[in-house]
Amino acid sequence: MSDPFLNLATLWSHVWDRLDRGVAQSDDPFRFVTLATVGPLGAQARTVGLRAADRDAMTVEVHSDLRTAKVRAVEHDPRGEILLWDQATQLQVRLAVHLTLIPADQARWARIPPEARLNYGTDPAPGTPVDRPEVVTRTPQRDRFVALSGQVERMDVVSLAHDPHRRAKFDGPSGRWVAP
What we know:
The chain has 4 helices and 11 strands; from the N terminus they run αββββαββααβββββ. By secondary structure, it is α+β, with helices and mostly antiparallel strands. Strands 1, 2, 3, 4, 5, 6, 9, 10 and 11 form a 9-stranded antiparallel sheet that branches. Strands 7-8 form a two-stranded antiparallel ribbon. The longest helix is centred in the first third of the chain and has 17 residues, at 8-24. It comes from Jannaschia donghaensis. It holds the Pfam family Pyridox_oxase_2.
C-alpha cells in the first residue's frame, strides 16, 4: 500500500476508507473508538462502537441507550470528539464533531443484530447503583435506543510511524500540513 501521508487528498480519502472499514469489520482497530463529551459534571470519555460513516455527508454515528450520561452530556453541549487509534500502523485520528440525537429510529433499529439490541433495554438504567451486577436484566426496547450522529467539523490526523512524525488538519476535504 502506498503511503497516504504523501498527499493531503490521498490522506483525506484514506481516513474515510479506514472509517468505512471500522464500520464494516468488527475486528478493525477503528471499530471501537473513544467518544469525548463535556456534560454537567465536566469532561467524560468512553469507548463506543462506530456504527456508520458517510464521507459525502461528513458524518459518523455511534449508538447508545437514551438514559446514559453520554446522552445527557450531548443534551448539555453537542460538541464532541472521537479518537481513533491503530496500534499496528501508528495512526491517530481525531474527529471534532457536532452531535445530534436521533431517538428510536425504526430504520436504524432494524439494522441492529438482535443480540446487540439487548444493550438498549437494561434495567435498571445505565449508571444506576446496584447491589450485585447479576441483578441487571436486558430486554431490548427501541424507545431506549438513540443514534448519536456526528457532523465532522474538523479532522486531525497523525502518523507516529514516520520519522519525523507527520500531521495534517482538515476542515472538510481541504487540509494543511502542520508540525506534529
